[in-house]
Write a structure and sequence with these properties.
single chain, alpha+beta, tt1808, chain A, 2 domains, 6-stranded mixed sheet, 5-stranded antiparallel sheet, 4 helices
């Protein structure tokens, strides 16, 4: 990921914010480059989760929303897809008109792209759990695998032969990964 130095004061004014996706790490803007394939995957996941969450009145599914992880970390992270339950952000409470949402999602989903390093992914998983995210899905679309983290030390690796379920976070949610991965052939 490319890091661009901006002062934190500049970030709050909105005058120097870059176009495109970025995160804020220790007061610095870090670009979040994603290819069309990974963006498409995030859209597919949001499209699958959104109607289920809405019809079951569980909360909100968002795509590329930036979340404020302070005060635990001086970070504003942007998972590719996230689920925030009504328990964490009540249904009748509007999402605030700020750069980042000051709530911790129940579920964070990251779609791994060629620009992600193993260290980047591991750091995000660690941070998510330290601030209170309850589950993290890391999707490797080219390898056709989904890593489902229940904690930093408990992970299930799923393949197209498996089914992902929502567990306690998304009760009743089930998605056969074969259907998901068959919808999109990996790039050559």
């Amino acid at each position: 990921m490319a890091t661009i130095a901006f002062e934190e004061a500049d970030l709050h004014t909105g005058l120097m914010e870059p176009d495109g996706l970025y995160e804020v790490v220790d007061g610095r803007i870090v670009e979040k480059p994603m290819g069309a394939y990974e963006v498409w995957w995030a859209g597919v996941i949001a499209t699958v989760l959104g109607p289920f969450v809405k019809s079951n009145r569980l909360g909100r599914v968002v795509q590329e929303m930036m979340f404020d992880l302070r005060p635990r970390f001086d970070r504003e992270r942007r998972p590719d897809v996230a689920f925030v339950s009504y328990e964490r952000w009540p249904r009748d409470r509007r999402v605030t008109p700020t750069r980042s949402w000051a709530v911790i999602p129940d579920l964070a989903v990251e779609v791994v792209s060629p620009t992600n390093t193993a260290v980047d992914v591991a750091d995000k998983v660690e941070e998510y759990f330290e601030v209170g995210v309850r589950q993290v899905w890391v999707i490797y679309p080219v390898q056709m695998k989904v890593y489902v983290y229940a904690s930093t030390t408990s992970v299930r690796i799923l393949t197209p032969a498996d089914e992902i379920d929502g567990g306690e976070i998304l009760p009743g949610f089930r998605l056969p990964l074969g259907d998901l991965f068959n919808e999109a052939d990996p790039p050559a």
